[in-house]
Amino acid sequence: MVDVEDLSLVGTHCPYCALQCGMTLQVRRAEQGQAMVTVTPRDFPTNRGNLCRKGWTCAELLSSPERLTVPLVRRSRSEDLVATSWEEAIDRTVTALTALQERYGPDSIGVLGGGGLTNEKAYLLGKFARVALRTRMIDYNGRFCMAAAATATRRAFGVDRGLPFPLSDIERTDLLILVGVNTAETMPVLLGHIERMRAAGGRLVVIDPRRSATAELADIFVQSTPGADIALAQGLLRLVIDAGLVDEAFVAARTRGFDEVRAHAMGFWPERVEALTGVSIVQLRAVVEELRRAQTTILLTGRGVEQHVTGTHAVLAYINLMLALGRVGRPWCGYGSVTGQGNGQGGREHGQKADQLPGYRSITDPCDREHVARVWGVDPEQIPGPGVPATEILTKAGTEDGVRGLLVFGCNPAVSAPEATRVENRLRSLDFLAVADFVLSETAALADVVFPVTQWAEETGTMTNLEGRVVVRRKALDPPPGVRSDLEVLAMLATALECRSAFPSDPAAVFAELRRASSGAVADYAGIDYERIVTEDGVFWPCPSADHPGTPRLFLDCFPTPDGRARFHVVPSSSADEAPDVEFPLCLTTGRLLEHYQSGAQTRRIDPLRRAVPTSYVEIHPATAQWYGVTDGDTVRVRTRRGSFVTTARVTTKVAEGTLFVPFHWGGAERANNATRAVTDPESGIPAFKLSAATVEAAARMSP
Ligand SMILES: Nc1nc2c(c(=O)[nH]1)N[C@H]1C(S)=C(S)[C@@H](COP(=O)(O)OP(=O)(O)OC[C@H]3O[C@@H](n4cnc5c(=O)[nH]c(N)nc54)[C@H](O)[C@@H]3O)O[C@H]1N2
Ligand SMILES: Nc1nc2c(c(=O)[nH]1)N[C@H]1C(S)=C(S)[C@@H](COP(=O)(O)OP(=O)(O)OC[C@H]3O[C@@H](n4cnc5c(=O)[nH]c(N)nc54)[C@H](O)[C@@H]3O)O[C@H]1N2
Ligand code: SF4
Ligand SMILES: [Mo]
């Protein structure tokens, strides 16, 4: 273990996004004994010595006055949260959980995790739900994130790893196509790889309804209408077929199902696609010309493609395109989904997902259940079956068919969940809500018990970044007195619940158990340990043994499907599922800004970031603004069939006429998710955050 007192420099990783940029923390003792932490970038393969603004400022939250340092409890519904002891916090929680389970059964308690939790936490949380609470009802915020891509890649390639190749492969490709991903704001440090690609002659195509900061950098920017990706991908495939660009040898040797897809694509002639997508035939042909000139291509999707009712199909449509071109499973080629959260990848591998056991094992497969039961020291029958996606846990919470009690670790659904007004009401109607966090998030503010937990620099643990590379974040300083780690909280709760299985709170012990639980599985971590990670700049899974080098590139020889071939999928054609109409004539889409992270729980508490962008805004085209009598800087209300929020108009040609874009980083009256839809993709459970029919009212005419 690291001796904190003697330590001044610790190599670790950023607390935010899935790039997991390498950084060095310098810890000094100030005169009053409190720790001062300085961040400097470290040379690591994803960031090569760069950080974005969020990375540079991330240490501020360690010593923020808004930091939670004592457990909080609400002794009755009419009272406020007050400080309490750990004993009371744990005791109240266990008493409430036990009473609810006795009355309503084990599934009356739900657990909501997060893609920001370390692998160790995600693993122990899944074990806690299944073994200590015996509930099926566990899921995590990654369900809001890239679940559609996860489902699609599992079907097409047999495995879900966000990028099946190292990020640096971008530098060697001839053509990078970014679809619905605004890297310049959401992963600014990734731009370094794109710059090196272009210096070597590579080209960049960006497909987005918005002239985003990333679109500004493109050689070709394709402005599509929101929700048009299925038609667009099929239209491109049709033109690729017409241009003779199909790699027939690859298709014959390494795939299955192309004939049906080829026939289906014929229905997407250019004029039709132009009408469906808003993309001109000239532009469609320009993209195909780029594909013709390139020998190698990488296509990445982001949340713009995935967060739709048809998200899985949209991803499958782009995968079809890449498979037809034969640009998958070859060097400097591939399809990838850009994982967002710090441990969005590992967080979905180790058992937080409703249908999953550690290592990507299936909760319904008897062999998988048996393997994990052995590691957990329980009978396989004791492991409950699959639960339901996060959105369903939340929208039914507190109702007859829903959970009565909920534990939240690493998620702020009161801001980030779709139809957040309804979700907030559901959370209020629970019999019991406990939240572990290091700040009083909007969700924690609704809780009966709040556990104050350690932050990234105060604990050790592994994260799996967007490349499937397992990295270790090392403890650099002691937490404030009174604060415990998530692992300690779970261990205390398990003990108080009189659970006989082991709940170690030392991350190394948890990781050792995780390695055994994942051994022989798809996401096999058996050969990975903390020392190896540090000496090798991270280790890529699968890594089944200590002498295995890890697997930076998947699919070079075969796909992990039963016959080793990738699958094409005929994608049903669908029109926009919530088309604009007379009452709600505009398309509202939502997303992110560089300065803020997710629900904003962290970044709204960091001074330089809060000052840079203190409030939300809505991007609106000048013609649309004029039609609605809105001028730049006006306070406006954006309405959909679900609800409304108030924000400031930013009149700009970044968005097309009729499209509104709003970031979702704020709560209260500015909460964009008041207006989004809890309807989900039936294939993956991802909510349709990226498309709502909407209208906008200027302040003067604003109804209360
Ligand atoms: N600064 C910052 N960085 C972050 C985060 C953050 O909150 N803030 N969050 C992290 C996380 S968890 C994630 S998931 C990633 C997300 O990273 P991104 O996917 O890059 O983020 P978004 O802004 O949600 O969406 C990307 C783009 O999709 C476009 N879009 C909207 N609708 C459509 C559509 O129908 N089709 C297409 N093709 N595009 C569409 C939007 O205009 C937007 O520019 O970012 C990670 N990094
Ligand atoms: N409208 C709209 N809504 C969206 C999206 C969108 O594009 N549009 N994107 C969706 C996506 S992609 C995502 S990933 C979700 C994210 O949504 P959330 O999960 O709600 O986002 P965060 O702000 O990351 O919330 C994490 C919370 O956990 C706390 N936390 C961080 N680390 C830890 C830890 O180690 N332990 C504990 N106990 N707590 C911790 C933070 O302080 C914060 O309060 O939002 C989704 N919501
Ligand atoms: S790009 Fe992501 S990981 Fe890198 S510094 Fe910024 S927020 Fe942190
Ligand atoms: Mo995400």
Helix content: 25-40%
Mean pLDDT: 96
What kind of oligomer do you see? single chain
Q: N-to-C terminal Cα separation, in Å?
A: 58 Å
User: What summary fits the major beta sheet?
Assistant: 7 strands, mixed
Physical arrangement of strands within the biggest beta sheet: 5-4-18-17-16-6-7
CATH topological fold name of the largest domain: Rossmann fold
| Number of helical regions | 23
- How many distinct domains? 4
List bound small molecules: ligand MGD, iron/sulfur cluster, molybdenum atom
Query: Percent of residues in beta strands?
Result: 15-25%
CATH architecture of the largest domain: 3-Layer(aba) Sandwich
| CATH class assignment of the largest domain | Alpha Beta
Would you mind describing this structure in some detail?
This protein has 704 residues and is α/β, with parallel strands linked by helices. Strand 1 (9-13) and strand 2 (22-29) form a beta hairpin. The longest helix has 19 residues, at 86-104. The chain is globular and about 70 Å long. The protein binds ligand MGD (2 copies), iron/sulfur cluster and molybdenum atom.
